[in-house]
Amino acid sequence: MASLPGHAGCQASRCDEPAVVVSGVSKRFKLFSSPVERLVAAIRPGRPRTPREFWALQDINLTIPAGQTLGIIGRNGSGKSTLLQIICAILRPTRGQVNTRGRIAALLELGAGFNPEFTGRDNAVFLCRLSGLEGGDITGRLEQIEAFADIGPFFNQPVKTYSSGMFVRLAFATAINVQPDILVVDEALAVGDAKFQRKCYQKFLDFQKAGKTILLVTHSCDIIARHCDRAVLLESGRLIMDGNAKAVGEAYNELLFGLPVGSGSRPASRPQPEAPQPSTDANQLQELLEGDGTADVCPTRRTYNKNEYKFGEGGAAIVDYLLIDGPRQDPATVNAHQVISIYFKAAYERDVAFPTFGLTLQTLEGMIVCGSSTNLQGLTIQPIRAGETRVFKVTMRLALKAGDYFFSCGVADHGDELHLLQCRSDMIHLVVQSDRVCSGVADLEITLSQMDQSALLEEACH
Fold first, then answer.
1. How confident is the model over 117-144, as pLDDT tens digits?
2. 3-state secondary structure of 427
3. Alpha carbon of 296 to those of 12, 288, 300, 309, 424: distances in Å?
4. What is the reported pTM?
5. Is CATH 3.30.2090.10 the classification given to domain 284-433?
6. What is the per-residue pLDDT across 140-198, written as a single tens digit (0 to 9) for each?
7. Which fold has domain 7-103+180-256?
8. 3-class SS at 83?
9. Domain spans of the chain?
């Protein structure tokens, strides 16, 4: 692999792990007030007046082992795309160095480098050669690219005749089928129609199963939690967190709501209050509905998760909840396909003009199963005064397979801007029991049967 100044490459067979090493990388851009000023600076580099400097990346150090899927997350302008472009040798770092092991396929700006006058086939050949493929390798790849793009006879027509959908299909198919050792994806999986998107995700999973190294940039904590072994968080060009994908996702959510990273908290390691036994009478629900206490009693519930993560601006808090499964109140486990109700009690310490409540249900791995809020359901909540409490009721049918699930819930003030008052991430640990065996997450009560000829005829008659 050819290397640029500040960017070293090596063949996979000649290098030991890791696959990517980013050492002290910083990237500076010069900002000019106008195109004329940029032109003058190019013509007269010794001119006294210097442009403003913008550091898109500052002292990034990152080691990625071969075979790992790394999620890169951060707000717009945090430096994610710049980092990927430096790793792919599209940009040169101002300082530092990047070492990579093996061939890289980059899904950054799909179609970059395509010549509109060339046919799809010619553009695919050109990009295969840029990736280091030669002769017979290219011939084999072209068949895969043509089949994956699935644009029919247009593969042999000039790209300028393509629709936007055909263009991205060809670009994705070309980038993904050069058999890379390292796949770099900048939010480019959701391209084309639904069937093509499904094919793209399946290709992504195939790369993971094959032990390829993957760098995935996204704004979705759900995708990070589902697909990544590890994640890093960028903010203002700095790497501010590196670790477990779920924990990094929580820190990203804090940034989105204007909160300092780490401002949230987990319960201290201390003995929890003794949880009450499940009850069939109405006492617990009556106490929750009629009580005016503001102390947090959630840890007394049998489904409470002591490893929850709390964060928010403050001004309101969820102080109690009660799960009801038929006649059982506060059970430790629930059965699949039952209709359950959960009552959440929130105490408000300040006036809230546009109150809203929401929750999500996630798997053990962090995949969002479902979620909703009073806003999404068009439910208008009357303004709340400081010192008041409100109870929100959630009802749902557990069409889930057996397993462990986690509820997160939050209260907010949803005026011109969303102010997250409190979020309790993974507060409820829901253990779902079922005798049925199925794959996936949802249990839709699928039944299978084999039909003989007489049964088919009888069914057709009815």
1. 999 999 999 888 887 788 778 888 898 9
2. strand
3. 55, 12, 9, 14, 12
4. 0.74
5. no
6. 889 899 999 989 999 999 999 999 888 888 988 888 888 889 999 887 666 677 788 88
7. Rossmann fold (3.40.50)
8. helix
9. 7-103+180-256, 284-433
